[in-house]
Amino acid sequence: MLDEAVVARVLGAALWTGGEFAEVFVEDARSSSARLDDGKVEEITSGRARGAGIRVITGDTTGFAHTADLTEGGLVAAAEAASAVARKGGGGTVKVALAGRSDARSTATVLPESVPKSTKVELLARADAAARGEGGGIRQVTATYADSRRRILVANSEGLLASDDQVKTRFAVSAVASGDAGMQTGRESQGYAMGFEFFDEFDVEEAGRAAARRALTKLTARPAPSGTMPVVIKSGGGGVLFHEACGHGLEADLVGKRASVFAGRRGQEVASPLVTLVDDGTMGHEWGAYAVDDEGHPAARNVLIEDGVLTDYMYDLLRARKEGRGSSGNGRRQSYRHLPMVRMTNTFLVNGSEDPEEIIRQTPRGVYVAQLGGGQVNTATGDFVFGMTEAYLIEDGEITDPLRDANPIGNGPEALTLIDVVGNDFAMGSPGTCGKDGQGVPVGDGQPTLRVQALTIGGTAA
Amino acid sequence: MTELAELAALVVGWAAPGEEVEAYLSRSRTTNVRAYAGEVESLSSAEPVGAGIRVITGHRQGFAWAGTLDETVLKETLEEARDNAGFGEPDEFFALAVPDGVAPPQLDLVRDELVSMPIAAKVDLALELERTARSRDPRVTGVRVASFSDSYSETAMATTTGLTFSEASGICYLAVNPLVEEDGDTQTGYGMSAGRAPSELDIERAASDGVDRATRLLGARKPPSRRLTVVLDPEVTADLLSIIGGTLSGEAVLKGRSLFAQREGEAVAAPAVTLVSDPTDPGAFGASRYDGEGLARRRVPLVDAGVLRGFLYDTYSGRRARRASTGSASRSATTPPGVGAPALTLRPGDRTQDELVAAVTDGVYVQDVSGLHSGVNPVSGDFSVGATGLVIRDGAFAEPFREATIASTLQRMLLDVTAVGSDHEWLPSGPAGLTLVIDGVSLGGS
Q: Is there a contact between A409 and B373 if contact means CB atoms under 8 Å apart?
């Protein structure tokens, strides 16, 4: 993407005013998407953004500037802007020697740019037809296709030089159903860190049918209960529970600022012994996977909680340096225009041993959540919410009435200790985007079916 | 003409015969200073640029964008948009906006004071904000972030239908997240101050809001579940207004996704509710002279004393509904235009928040909500979000509560509004905030 000698000179320019560390992050990101709505393929968009973000660190202060001008002149100007904050005595010429380069190649076998747009667009009509075929109650269908290819190059004044080529493909269908009680929605989405070969396995018609069935089922949904009760969460996307209940709370920047209930608890029991929680950026084609993070550090499989005991937090370069240890490969940024910070990758609960059907049978009364939407957490108090987009009542150990959408709420440390059964049907959920401090990054979540003894359901039925 | 406007005109000049082209360009200068533990944690500055090009040819629409204003790249982007248009399906309602004779409001959204503010002064504000928050209360153990941010943006647009505009706006903010601790309990708060010029920023207010909103929650417990009256903090009301605004999009109505389709002229809310989208109000942070398609912004009445008066339209949805565009197109350089709901506001009532609270015997004051994106379904109307705040008992604030939910449906909430506060204030997120009192809401707790 850029000549190594140029990068080395830019790093030197960044350190001219006396900074201790400098980094150049170059990104070339292309994306394309197509949307079918109201029976027509109506929006085909594509875009490309290329630029570099330059960071200079002195002590605890970071200077940052970004530019879309990738000429040496443009980069040096950005380096000078970033280094303005690092003004100390004793600056001057610094020569940066970049070590042997590590380049990760994308494992995508069919790059998005090699696929004709008409082929991408055809998928949408197939999903639309399949969704509408589920019944006359289906009034509206939206199908979206999206792909991206993000090439990055990271170099820093410690000699690191690494690159990655990240391809992603995603497909989603949303349906609106209409009935006597009003309108309802259903959604199905899937995506992986791969190219168009994604569609060799992914059945767009089945996605359309699943979205439509969810919407139609919810036409007869009753208001969700209001109050605290046992909740069984289905395998797969249920992993959002952990993303919110403790994932953010285990990010070292929040821990370091004492803005997390999990601060100072390394080595302590923070969850039921059935809980082993992992954040794994190396996980094959999962949505949150990559070869190197946005600071050039290789992705890693990090065990955060083992048999209920907190083993480690997640780190980026700055937080790791503060504690005199290595980064865990969780330094990520939304784009070259943003500063990196600690972010999750693919966060999941390790498989248990119970039969998922038996978990439901052993629950006299509660709620079964089959699909989750997003969520949110206050890491300082530990209170978190997540959305139920497909849920049912459990009565006498059986799944009965479908429930209208609601947000359950819980407290992270408490909810983790209340997990009393974990199933043996581990699965990863649909692709998600995690938001933190105004930056969105792609993440995956997963878990086996499990039960939390008590969560508060935010319904309206007394 | 500004340089940006000239560039937009240049792009439109490349249109082929019979092809409609719209070029939307933007350039911003942004600064963000974060202070932590008495020092500058980070200082970021940048000049992001973007260009979004829309092509309509043979009733098919395509769009492409780029993160640079380089002419060669703009030519490629136009080519890409043309190519994309070839794969869409024809829709007779696709069209660029045409001049409609409505004059744009006279608004001056730039203050020289912000444009010429030195970086050192920005750094000082962030540091002073952190100091002020830390020293406000002995229970403050730290500040997760104290920041000053600003953005000066220029946008310019040109179309083959003869619309051109260029405009500029500037905004600056202070934001602070204090952490407080007492008896082993930790709480956070959020305080902010926004303005178009640094002299409009109020450090004291941002710091005291941030700290007080945290300390008043210390000792909060999960409340018992029941149905009751809720008093929404102005920030929460603003979030609710944004969601309601989405349900009033003409496009949502046309595509069968709006709760309010075919209900014009009906009472959809309590008489206390008069809702307007008014981007012509100079005090609104969401104010602008032009919409995302180049038409003049105007005041759009939506609900009048509870009765639904109309929807928000852009050119596409307007044509399809056989209505005029209401100048409500929203977009950025990287997205094509769609219907937006800028500067939403309620007609204020005549009582202060204290007076409204005094009239509630059994209720809760909701200071913050969480999970708006996951717990609100604008199609079904289901509304369920996490809530923290203070219990209201016999007209006064009582103990704080947390780890609870408030739930109802959007339709019922609008009808169950019993009062709108007099405390109208434009918020930087776009809508106005006012205290709002709503009956019959389910509180989910123990």
A: no
